[in-house]
Design brief:
The chain is about 40% helix and about 15% strand. The radius of gyration is 21 Å and the shape is globular. The chain is built from 14 helices and 13 strands. It has two domains: about 200 residues, P-loop containing nucleotide triphosphate hydrolases (Rossmann fold); about 150 residues, Rossmann fold (3-Layer(aba) Sandwich). Helix 12 links the parallel strand 10 and strand 11. The protein is an alpha/beta fold. The strands form two sheets. It has a seven-stranded parallel β-sheet, sandwiched between helices. Helix 3 crosses helix 4. InterPro entries: DEAD/DEAH_box_helicase_dom (IPR011545), DEAD/DEAH_RhlB (IPR044742), DEAD_box_RNA_helicase (IPR050079), Helicase_ATP-bd (IPR014001), Helicase_C-like (IPR001650), P-loop_NTPase (IPR027417), RNA_helicase_DEAD_Q_motif (IPR014014).
Length: about 375
């Protein structure tokens, strides 16, 4: 299957080829045709399967640049994900010059309002900031053709159900609705079916994308000796780019401070850090100017950073699903990945749950 077969125009295919994207992924193969044809789609696919382009490509095909109206809206649960989708969309502008607005908190609303006075065809937004614009009547969704709810499970998990429903009420009844989610639980299905018209269900099974190609290991230690164990592992591995996950913001702060003192090239990211600074840190990390990104789970979903070779779970995640999301940051696009989980005796029960979920007994690493 090629992008040409899927009805993607030559200019867009040429831009994709320049970006090193030559063939569609399974989620793109399965969903682009339906989306292009205007059908409602519920798509279940993990992060890292190419789902962003699965909805962006047909949206670009269907948008009419000569119309001075908002034709497509993509809503995502976090600023980081909204920024990432915007970056992908901006790359496609070379092929088709449509006007895009990213609307998320932490950015000056005044500059967004000014931009909205011009011609905008595509908006990528977080729920809170979008509702702020709708309240101010600075965004008019009355001509909207396509609505995308990205990371729907995370959106509901973060408590955005009311916001999503309020946004949907501001859109025309005759619109195309696309719902993308890593998991299709009953809450997501309920929301999707309530607002969708005879949706096509596309499901790309997890086993294709989650743990294949990722080498997993566990280091048994104690909380007191965990930092020394981590540093031993880091010195031994010397990864190109790695993310180190901690359970809380306070743990991230402490570990970053200690690793800096030990001479490691690291930066931290969590929700208390100012948005503009988070963006600068993520840009530096993507450019490989930072070797270690120390993060809470705010970075474990939705962020697709190529080049992350290693994931270190300094603290055990709160659920087996979170473990899968965290380690899914590595082993992307056919590359090999490595992940190491540090546990102390009180974590044994959660480790058992993780191993049961992934149906694999993770080998121990001696430090």
């Amino acid at each position: 299957m090629t992008f040409d077969n899927l009805g993607i125009s030559k200019d867009i295919v040429k831009t994709l080829n320049k970006l090193g994207i030559n063939n569609p992924t399974p989620i793109q193969e399965e969903s682009i045709g339906f989306i292009k044809d205007g059908k409602d789609v519920i798509a279940e696919a993990q992060t890292g399967t190419g789902k962003t382009l699965a909805f962006l490509l047909p949206i670009f095909e269907n948008i009419q640049p000569e119309l001075n109206e908002i034709q497509a809206l993509i809503v995502s649960p976090t600023r980081e994900l909204a920024i990432q989708i915007t970056e992908e969309a901006m790359k496609l502008k070379e092929a088709k010059d449509i006007n895009i607005l990213a609307a998320y908190g932490g950015k000056d609303i005044g500059s967004q309002i000014n931009k909205l006075k011009g011609s905008i065809q595509l908006i990528i937004a977080t729920p809170g900031r979008l509702l702020d614009h709708l309240d101010r009547q600075t965004i008019d969704l009355s001509k909207l053709k396509t609505f995308v709810l990205d990371e729907a499970d995370q959106m509901l998990f973060m408590g955005f159900k009311n916001e999503v429903e309020a946004i949907l009420k501001a859109t025309p009844k005759k619109r195309q609705t696309l719902c993308f989610s890593a998991t299709m639980d009953s809450q997501v299905k309920k929301l999707a079916y309530r607002y969708m018209n005879d949706p096509v269900v596309v499901s790309i099974k997890k086993k294709e994308v989650t743990l294949e190609g990722i080498k997993q290991e566990v280091v048994e230690t104690t909380d007191r000796h965990k930092q020394d164990a981590l540093c031993s592992v880091l010195d031994e591995d010397n990864p190109f780019m790695a993310i180190i996950f901690c359970r809380t913001k306070a743990r991230v702060d402490k570990l970053e401070e200690d690793l800096h003192r030990r001479g490691y090239n690291c930066q931290k990211i969590h929700s208390d850090i100012q948005q503009s600074k988070r963006e600068r840190i993520m840009k530096s990390f993507r450019n490989a100017d930072i070797q270690y990104l120390i993060a809470t789970d705010v970075a474990s979903r939705g962020l697709d950073i190529s080049g992350v070779s290693h994931i270190y779970n300094y603290d055990i995640p709160e659920s087996s699903e979170d473990y899968i999301h965290r380690i899914g940051r590595t082993g992307r696009a056919g590359e090999e990945g490595y992940t190491c989980l540090f546990i102390d005796p009180k974590n044994q029960k959660m480790l058992d749950e993780i191993e049961e979920k992934i149906k694999y007994q993770i080998p121990r690493r001696l430090v």
